[in-house]
Amino acid sequence: MAPAAGGPADGRTDAELLAAHVAGDPDAFGEVVRRHRDRLWAVALRTCGDPEEAADAVQDALVSALRAADRFRGDAAVTTWLHRIVVNACLDRARRRAVRPTVPLEEEPGGGGDGPRRGAVVAGAPDATAAVEARLDVAAALQRLPAPQRAALVLVDMYGVPVEEAAAVLGVAVGTVKSRCSRGRAVLAGLLSGRAREDG
């Protein structure tokens, strides 16, 4: 007896699942999402830099993918198609933020309240401060890049997506991805070395 569609033993390829979704299989698209949601979320989080924005971008992207599944032609892998939609959703949100910037509320210097102040170390916890600070520095520097450079670096450098596939995801030429990565790396290096000098 064949396993239930969309179940854990579903052996269909992503493209077969997408075709089944278009044909009316109610579980097929959910299986595609289950297979790829963690990586889509990670890419969105790195690209947006904010968990709420990333969650909204992934949700927007999956709704778009659900609605556009009948237009998938198989020219690229389903994963490439999904990544393109997620990155585009992130870039759309970044463009909207640039038009209507928001200023985050800063915590008061005294901290206030009963909780620990930002930056306080919890007693007894292993000191991973340097590693955490390095990750925070990279994340902060990444957010200072223009969104197209950030998206290229996230895909190529952080998730190891081949340049050709990243070009397909971003809808640009391979040379454009290489150029964006090169410029982005140079800016990141400058930002991070500047931070190191400040701390030194």
Automatic annotation (TrEMBL):
Keywords (alphabetical) are: DNA-binding, Sigma factor, Transcription, Transcription regulation
Q: Kindly give the SUPFAM superfamilies that the UniProt entry links to this protein.
A: Sigma2 domain of RNA polymerase sigma factors, Sigma3 and sigma4 domains of RNA polymerase sigma factors
Say if the entry is tagged with keyword Glycoprotein.
no
Enumerate the spans annotated as DAD domain: 52-99
NCBIfam families noted in UniProt? PRK09643.1, sigma70-ECF
| Organism per entry | Kineococcus glutinatus
Signal peptide location in the record? Answer: none
Q: State the family named in the UniProt similarity comment for this chain.
A: Belongs to the sigma-70 factor family. ECF subfamily.
Q: Which domain of life is it from?
A: Bacteria
Q: Which residues form a coiled coil?
A: none
Q: What is this protein called?
A: RNA polymerase sigma factor SigM
